[in-house]
Amino acid sequence: MERPLFSVLLALGVVMGCLLGAAYARARRGWADYQTIKKSVPGSRRTAWLLIRLVTTRIGVVALLLLGAVAYAAVGPDHERADPGPAPSVTPSPTPTVRADR
Protein backbone atom coordinates (compact mmCIF):
# COMPACT_ATOMS: atom_id res chain seq x y z
CA MET A 1 0.00 0.00 0.00
CA GLU A 2 2.85 2.34 0.68
CA ARG A 3 4.51 1.58 -2.62
CA PRO A 4 1.90 3.31 -4.87
CA LEU A 5 1.91 6.37 -2.60
CA PHE A 6 5.68 6.65 -2.85
CA SER A 7 5.50 6.18 -6.62
CA VAL A 8 2.94 8.95 -6.95
CA LEU A 9 4.97 11.27 -4.71
CA LEU A 10 8.15 10.43 -6.60
CA ALA A 11 6.49 11.11 -9.97
CA LEU A 12 5.04 14.37 -8.63
CA GLY A 13 8.48 15.39 -7.30
CA VAL A 14 10.14 14.63 -10.65
CA VAL A 15 7.54 16.64 -12.60
CA MET A 16 7.75 19.57 -10.20
CA GLY A 17 11.55 19.39 -10.23
CA CYS A 18 11.60 19.49 -14.03
CA LEU A 19 9.21 22.44 -14.16
CA LEU A 20 11.03 24.36 -11.42
CA GLY A 21 14.43 23.53 -12.91
CA ALA A 22 13.35 24.81 -16.34
CA ALA A 23 11.95 27.99 -14.77
CA TYR A 24 15.16 28.48 -12.78
CA ALA A 25 17.32 28.00 -15.89
CA ARG A 26 15.15 30.50 -17.80
CA ALA A 27 15.46 33.00 -14.93
CA ARG A 28 19.26 32.61 -14.84
CA ARG A 29 19.53 33.18 -18.60
CA GLY A 30 17.29 36.22 -18.30
CA TRP A 31 19.39 37.59 -15.42
CA ALA A 32 22.62 37.04 -17.37
CA ASP A 33 21.14 38.81 -20.41
CA TYR A 34 19.96 41.66 -18.18
CA GLN A 35 23.41 42.10 -16.68
CA THR A 36 25.03 42.09 -20.14
CA ILE A 37 22.62 44.73 -21.44
CA LYS A 38 22.97 46.77 -18.25
CA LYS A 39 26.74 46.92 -18.74
CA SER A 40 26.40 47.99 -22.37
CA VAL A 41 23.87 50.78 -21.68
CA PRO A 42 26.38 53.54 -20.77
CA GLY A 43 28.33 52.92 -23.97
CA SER A 44 25.14 52.87 -26.03
CA ARG A 45 23.92 56.02 -24.32
CA ARG A 46 27.22 57.77 -25.09
CA THR A 47 27.01 56.67 -28.70
CA ALA A 48 23.41 57.86 -28.98
CA TRP A 49 24.26 61.31 -27.58
CA LEU A 50 27.26 61.52 -29.90
CA LEU A 51 25.07 60.79 -32.91
CA ILE A 52 22.41 63.26 -31.74
CA ARG A 53 25.09 65.94 -31.29
CA LEU A 54 26.49 65.21 -34.75
CA VAL A 55 23.08 65.45 -36.42
CA THR A 56 22.08 68.64 -34.60
CA THR A 57 25.42 70.23 -35.47
CA ARG A 58 24.94 69.46 -39.15
CA ILE A 59 21.36 70.73 -39.08
CA GLY A 60 22.56 73.90 -37.34
CA VAL A 61 25.26 74.50 -39.95
CA VAL A 62 22.80 74.01 -42.81
CA ALA A 63 20.28 76.31 -41.09
CA LEU A 64 22.93 79.01 -40.65
CA LEU A 65 23.96 78.72 -44.29
CA LEU A 66 20.34 79.03 -45.40
CA LEU A 67 19.79 81.99 -43.08
CA GLY A 68 22.91 83.67 -44.46
CA ALA A 69 21.76 83.04 -48.04
CA VAL A 70 18.35 84.53 -47.31
CA ALA A 71 19.92 87.55 -45.58
CA TYR A 72 22.31 88.06 -48.49
CA ALA A 73 19.48 87.81 -50.98
CA ALA A 74 17.39 90.30 -49.01
CA VAL A 75 20.15 92.86 -48.50
CA GLY A 76 22.57 92.09 -51.31
CA PRO A 77 22.62 94.06 -54.56
CA ASP A 78 20.35 93.17 -57.45
CA HIS A 79 21.71 92.86 -60.96
CA GLU A 80 19.90 96.01 -62.01
CA ARG A 81 21.29 98.09 -59.19
CA ALA A 82 24.76 96.61 -59.30
CA ASP A 83 25.24 96.98 -63.04
CA PRO A 84 23.02 99.77 -64.23
CA GLY A 85 22.43 100.04 -67.93
CA PRO A 86 22.61 103.33 -69.76
CA ALA A 87 19.93 105.74 -68.71
CA PRO A 88 17.54 106.72 -71.42
CA SER A 89 18.49 110.09 -72.74
CA VAL A 90 15.85 112.65 -73.34
CA THR A 91 15.93 113.70 -76.96
CA PRO A 92 13.71 116.47 -78.07
CA SER A 93 11.24 115.21 -80.55
CA PRO A 94 10.57 117.42 -83.51
CA THR A 95 7.33 119.21 -83.07
CA PRO A 96 5.11 119.19 -86.08
CA THR A 97 4.97 122.54 -87.71
CA VAL A 98 2.17 123.62 -89.83
CA ARG A 99 3.25 125.05 -93.13
CA ALA A 100 1.08 127.58 -94.68
CA ASP A 101 2.17 126.76 -98.19
CA ARG A 102 0.56 123.45 -98.35
Describe this structure in words.
With 102 residues, this protein is mainly alpha-helical. Among the domains are: 7-39; 40-74. It contains two helices and no strands. The chain has helices at residues 2-75, 79-82. The longest helix has 74 residues, at 2-75. Keywords: Membrane, Transmembrane, Transmembrane helix. Residues 85-95 have a biased composition (Pro residues). The chain crosses the membrane at residues 6-27, 48-75. Residues 80-102 are annotated as: Disordered.
Can you describe this structure in just a few lines?
This protein is mainly alpha-helical and 102 residues long. It has 2 helices and no strands.
Please name the defining characteristics of this protein:
0% strand, 76% helix, single chain, transmembrane, 2 helices, membrane, transmembrane helix, mainly alpha, 102 residues
